[in-house]
Amino acid sequence: MPEMTNGQPVRGPYMHSANGRKIYPFDPQASEVNIDVVAHHLACNGRWNGATQHKQFRSRIYFSVAEHSVLVARYLREEMNRPDLELEGLLHDAPEYLLSDMIRPIKHDPRVHPVYKPLEDKAEYAIAGRFNLVFPLPKEIKIADDAVCAAEARQIVPKSELETWESKDLLHDDTLVAPYEIEMMNPFEAKMFFLDAYEEAIARRSKYASLPFVAKL
Known about the structure:
By secondary structure, the chain is mainly alpha-helical.
C-alpha cells in the first residue's frame, strides 16, 4: 500500500504547472496530462543548454523544445512518409514538461542514466496513455529526432575554430539532416506553434489510430 496522509496517497514532491495545478514528476498520471500545460512548459524549456545563436539575428538566442518537437513531427510526416507517427513525434519530448530538458552528455552518463531513465519511462508511459501513442516509441522517432538535431547543430549551435569537432564525438546521428530552417521563436510563439501542430496532427490522427481521451483540467 502507498504511504497515506489524511487518507490520500503520498505522491512525492509536486511541481507548479502553467495552469496553476500541482503535477507530480515521480507519479505522473495520464488523466492529469494537459496539452496546454505540456505546450507551455516545452515552449519555456531551452535546448542545447542554452548554447544557441541564430546566425542572422543576434537577438535570437533561445531555442525551445516545443519548436524542436514540431520539426520532428514534420520530418516524420514529410520526409519519412510516416504520418501515422506524427503525434508520437510531436510528443516525443513531452516527458520534459515534467523533467526539463537534460543535455545528452549528462542524461546518458552511466552515473545519471540509471536514475533518470525510470523517471523518463514513467512519464512517457503516462503521456502515451493520455494521447494513445505507440509505447515504447518506435525507432523512427529517434531517426527523426537525430535529423532535426543535426539541422540545429549546423544552424544555431556556435562552434569555435579553436576546438576540434568530429562526428565520433556526437551523441546524435548526423547522417540525415532535416531540411528545415530553425527560426528560434520566442516562448509564446513556440507554444502557439506547438498547439497549432497538435490540432493539425489530431485532425489527421483518426486515419491511423484512436484519438486521445479528454484529460482532467
